[in-house]
Amino acid sequence: MVRLKTKESEKLFRAASKVIPGGVNSPVRAFRSVGGTPLFIAKAKGATVTDVDGNTFIDYVSSWGPMILGHAHPKVVSAIRGAAGRGTSYGAPTEGEIRLATLIRNAFPSMEKVRLVSSGTEAAMSVVRLARGYTGRDMIVKFEGCYHGHADSMLVKAGSGALTFGQPDSPGVPKDLARHTLTATFNDAGSVRRLFQRNPGRIAAVIVEPVPGNMGVVPPEPGFLEELRKLTRREKALLIFDEVISGFRVAFGGAQELFGIEPDLTVLGKIIGGGLPVGAFGGKREVMDALSPVGPVYQAGTLSGNPLAVAAGIACLTELGRRGTYRKLGDKADYLAEGLHGVFRKSGVPTWTNRVGSMWTTFFQKGPVIDYATAKRSDTGAYARYFHGLLSRGIYIAPSQFEAGFMSLAHTRRDLDRTIAAAREVLREVSG
Ligand SMILES: *Cc1c(COP(=O)(O)O)cnc(C)c1O
Fold first, then answer.
1. Which residues make Cβ contacts (< 8 Å) with residue 280, sequence separation at least 6?
2. Residue among 157, 214, 217, 267 whose CB has most ligand 1 atoms within 8 A, to mutate
């Protein structure tokens, strides 16, 4: 057993726990589901992060998705430096916002108009208000295990941290509000059809992660998203794709490009900020123009379209727009997936891997994993042992079974070979 030096992280974690609830500013960062002390990160570069004890790890957490170019990419860093020198916020419009909105619209033609906000949560919360305001209906359909940020209406049977901690319904969310959020089963269009039948003319929108990453990665089965498009159109409800993870990840134009489906509204975040706090939502002109100041649906933000975040986003999307980016990412992910597949097969440890392009999850169970209920069958104890085994060998994956791994353009063949070799050693321990 390799032992990791974590003295400095432990010291900081004790200090943090005195002033910050649980010592972390987002629950997914705590090591609650795998045990141990979260690592305090001192710096990151390319495909690696380095903690305060001086350990360097090959990073597949990728700040939970945004760092698709790798950490501290020179173009992004220089864009942020340049913007900072010109002032960090004005509370007035800037040219950069037009450039970022245009980059987004060119990649996502369904987003005829775009509004920038400061997080994925804020974007999802705003898009739900817009859908309700535009349709004049109160009910929203979401899927069990899908996460759309932590706004009240969306914190019902959510994935990610809420799933990890087994408290999908949070205290503090009024029952009167939560009852307007209906939950369906992912990959089961029949479950959505039944909700429409029971609530005729009352459902404003169906919101879905077209490639869920927050119950672990679960690919949509052929025909499922098409069926959602047909149902919502027939019922005059809006179809909302939450592409906060999948946008600019599974393809430049996200899952809607990959599967050829046009939602009415789209939510973005993570990658579009190049590692700075950003979210965006957009869609049909007619729907978006229901937003204030044109229309009656109120939405605002002091730091929305922040010049630093916008500069980082423009630099990131411009780099991603280069020819061959997604083929390169896909090739790296293929290579790692094939290597790991061989290791898992030989180990005899039951695993099931779901992958869409450069995002994936290996579930510790026989599979198949097609929805929340099947994801929950995983052996989280085996995952915790796998996690710690990899960590002690310099490989950093998500500290929870129900999250995704992310490939970046900075990962080298050597990084991937090291990861496969480490997994081989660890699985001997996990199975033994
Ligand atoms: C991360 C995430 C969000 C929330 O974004 P934040 O920036 O963390 O508020 C919303 N939807 C999905 C699908 C996400 O993965």
1. 101, 104, 114, 115, 116, 117, 123, 267, 268, 269, 272
2. 214
Specify the pLDDT at position 158.
Answer: 67
CB 194, CB 151: distance < 8 Å: no
Question: Closest ligand 1 atom to the C-alpha of 122?
Answer: 9
pLDDT tens-place string over residues 123-141: 999 999 999 999 999 999 9
Q: Per-domain residue ranges for the chain?
A: 7-72+324-431, 74-320
Residues lining ligand 1, CB < 6 A? 119-121, 124, 147-149, 209, 213-214, 242, 244-245, 269, 279
Spacing, Cα 282 to ligand 1 middle (Å): 16
Catalytic positions: 147, 242, 270
- Cα within 13 Å of Cα(285), Cβ side: 2
Fold classified for 74-320: Aspartate Aminotransferase; domain 2 (3.40.640)
Domains 7-72+324-431 and 74-320 equal at CATH topology level: no
Number of neighbours of residue 236 by Cβ within 10 angstroms: 11
Name the token pair of 404.
């995704």
- Tell me the average pLDDT across 75-81: 98
pTM, to two decimals: 0.96
Residue pLDDT, tens place only, 406-429: 999 999 999 999 999 999 999 988
For the domain made up of 7-72+324-431, the CATH class stated in words is alpha beta
What residue owns the CA closest to ligand 1's atom 8?
A: 120
